[in-house]
Every structure is written in C-alpha cells, then in structure tokens.
C-alpha cells in the first residue's frame, strides 16, 4: 500500500503578522512566527516565504547566457559587494531577460546572521522548512502574464515597491516610508533612479494592496497606467528561488532522520511488547496445561502402579502360562527353522529372562540363513533375537550362537 503524502503548509508574511496556508486556502493569521508554527500539524510539510527587508535585492546585467556561468558571476558579485565570507551567504537569482550576449537577472541574497531570527524559531520548535522563497516571488506569480506591472504592497510593517516583468521580479525596493506623505516624497526619486538603471517603467497597470492606503493620488498623477487592487497573494509550490540555508537543510534532515528513527523505535518496541505478551500468554497456557497434566497423572498413578504390578507378575509367570515359552515348544520352534539336516544344536540353555542355543553348520552361510529364519518365524516374533557372527572351527564347520529374550 502506498503511503499517503503529508499535507503541504506555507507560512507567509502579511502586512502585520504571519499567515498559515494549506494549498490555496488561508487558515490563520498570527502575530508571531512562533505562533504560526505552533498551528501546523506534526506530520505536515512546511515551506516558508521570506519578507524582503532582510534581503539584499539587485538587478544585474551580466555578459553570459548559460546558467552555470550566470551563477558564478552572481556569486562573485555577492562576494565583492557583501561583507561576508562565501560560506555565510545564502541566495539565488532568476533570469528576467535573455539576449544574444548578455542576460538580465534579479538576485536576492542574505547572510546567515540576517536569517538567524528565523533560524532561532525553527531551532526552538525543532521544526524546519523544506523550502524558503522570497515572498515577492509569490506576489509576482499573481500578476498578469506578459505585462510589466508596478506593485506596491505591505509586509511586516514595511511598504515594498516591486516592478514585475512577466510574473518575474525585475526590481524590488523596501521603502523607508510607510505613509502617504513619505511615499509621495520617495516615489518620484525612485522612479528616476530605476529609469536611469534601464529598468522598464512603462507599466500596463499598477497593483495596490489593501493595506497600502492614501497613495492613489500620487500614483494616478505620475503614472498613465490604471491603478487596480492587488489580487490575494496565494503561495505557490512551483519554481522560484530556494533560500534554504545549508545549515537549515542539515538540521531539517537530522530532524527528519530523528523522526524516522523514533518511529522505527516505537514500532520495534510495539513488536517487542507484542511478542513479550504473546510469550507470557503462551507460557501461562503451558503452565496451566502442565498443571492439568500433572493432576491427571497423579490421578492415574494408582492405576498405573496396579498395571505395573500386574505386568511384573505376568512376566514372572510368563514361562508357565505362555506355551511358546515352554522348553519343548521352544525347542520345536528352534528346530523347525533349521535350513538343513547338517545344521544342528550343540548346546541349549533357558532361563525366564532369555534362552541361548549354540550350534554348528557346514558353512557360515547356512548359519546366517538360520538366524534369518528365526527372525522371520511368526511364532518367534515376540522374542528379541541376536547373534554373533559365525566362527569357523578347525574342521571347517561354522559355529553359531543365538540369544533370544522373550
């Protein structure tokens, strides 16, 4: 039987607090990440969406088209720009635009120290995500395909300005302002900057989240595109940048192995307990049977003693009451089995417990044939007959000895 796949849950940042999702259904919104994590079932799988504020977000134009070359160039850019060792940097990138000799990519990076606030939550709960993706990627996924869109939304108390190109983040900025007046002052300078950097600013539409209020007038006066409501951002399990740090991944694998071994130990303990109970039950039944047999044996002991006494008495009187044990009858039976007239007895002894004959035969083969006839005689089948190998005499005759026990 195929084991059912555990349900997949998402934790994503909201304007304030964190949302818990199962597939495309939002289940809860909690003030803290720890509280959101506590709502997940023990066997549920987890993916986590990172807010933008701890990330270093860049749009890069690189002279390469192969993904392996692009990855190396992006890594070099991080190492030059960030004050961290390469081992401390976690990041990824997506291709925004690809031309003949160069490629435009959007990259996101963070240091391990920056992500530690989230790592502390996972470590305390001993629960680790399978995949970590920037939340802005999920925002981009709900934008119209094939369009360049300006999106303003809120996450964790910050307003975020993002230019989405065909459902891919092309430029993302966490604004220092989170009010209409500050937004109006900062927005104009940001649009000038991105225009000079070659970022497309001809938007087909502007999408505004419900939490960002009071900036519609600024957008309508500076943009020709219509201002619309941002659709509900539902997390997607496909594609995107995986930000899962190596040490988070190692901890997750260690935790998963611990769960597997714990489950195996519980199964082994259950099997051991089952066999222990079965063995104890079987032993108890055997003890009861043995006790019953002992009682039955004790009840039959007088009868058995009587039978043994009668058998001993019969054995002592056997020679007197069994005609086959009469001396004359026994000699007749022994003589009847002689294979030839030249075979005869030289000695005969009989006591209650056995009889013995010694004889001679012209050859050893006749002596052996005689022994065979004795054993096959139906009137002598109650005797235990044995004989030594025939012994050759000086006159070339064979001497034999046969012993029988009634």
For the biggest sheet, the summary is: 5 strands, mixed
Mean pLDDT score = 86
Could you please say which CATH topology of the domain at 324-405 applies here?
A: Gyrase A, domain 2
CATH top level assignment of the domain at 324-405? Alpha Beta
| Count of beta strands | 18
Please, what is the CATH homologous superfamily of the domain at 324-405?
A: General secretion pathway protein M, EpsM
SS element count, helices: 9
Residue stretches low in confidence (pLDDT < 50, at least 5 long) are none
Kindly estimate the percentage of residues that lie in beta strands according to DSSP: 25-35%
What does this structure look like?
With 406 residues, this protein is α+β, with helices and mostly antiparallel strands. It has a domain at 324-405: General secretion pathway protein M, EpsM (Gyrase A, domain 2), CATH 3.30.1360. It has 9 helices and 18 strands. It has helices spanning 33-38, 67-81, 116-125, 135-141, 180-196, 216-222, 246-321, 327-336, 364-376; strands at residues 8-13, 18-22, 25-30, 45-50, 56-62, 89-98, 103-111, 131-134, 148-155, 158-165, 168-174, 205-208, 227-229, 344-351, 354-361, 384-387, 391-392, 398-405. A 5-stranded mixed beta sheet has the order 3-2-1-4-8. A 5-stranded mixed beta sheet has the order 11-10-9-12-13. The radius of gyration is 51 Å and the shape is rod-shaped. The two termini are 69 Å apart.
